[in-house]
Amino acid sequence: xxxxxxxxxxxxxxxxxxxxxxxxxxxxxxxxxxxxxxxxxxxxxxxxxxxxxxxxxxxxxxxxxxxxxxxxxxxxxxxxxxxxxxxxxxxxxxxxxxxxxxxxxxxxxxxxxxxxxxxxxxxxxxxxxxxxxxxxxxxxxxxxxxxxxxxxxxxxxxxxxxxxxxxxxxxxxxxxxxxxxxxxxxxxxxxxxxxxxxxx
Length: 200
Hints:
This is G-protein coupled receptors family 1 profile domain-containing protein. The protein has helices at 4-33, 41-61, 64-85, 91-127, 135-149, 151-157, 159-177, 180-199. With 200 residues, it is mostly helical. It has one domain (4-157). The chain is globular.
């Protein structure tokens, strides 16, 4: 049976790998599929994605409280930079800004639930001199998930990124259907559907 510390560390490694994959995907989408009118915000999103990969690796090496300090420090820097970037108002740019705003709101909610509330809960346990037991380990799990899940709202909310993912998946599905296994699965699915329609 695995002990608690080894489970936490294994989870942190898995979350760091997932963070590297999801943020690399977002970096690829930003560099290849960003709307032309997105302007300097493109660079800010690239910076945030690269930071989250570094943060995930940092979370493996240092304690979560130090990595939370780093997040707050760079979060304030990003917020100040973003205030200076978002100043245009054409309808196309307004649509892009709305998508970016919703992505930002989602990316604000994720750390609240995965970092701040769990950490606050543990601080309250300490303040009230209560033993949190293994619950304290859940903070490490939730903090490790943060950089892995944070790019997902941006990928799903920004239409050009979402469309690029759909196009990629559709292309891979069509390619798979042309293979022997794909043809066999389509043929088997057609047989099952025709037998169900004959019974009903």
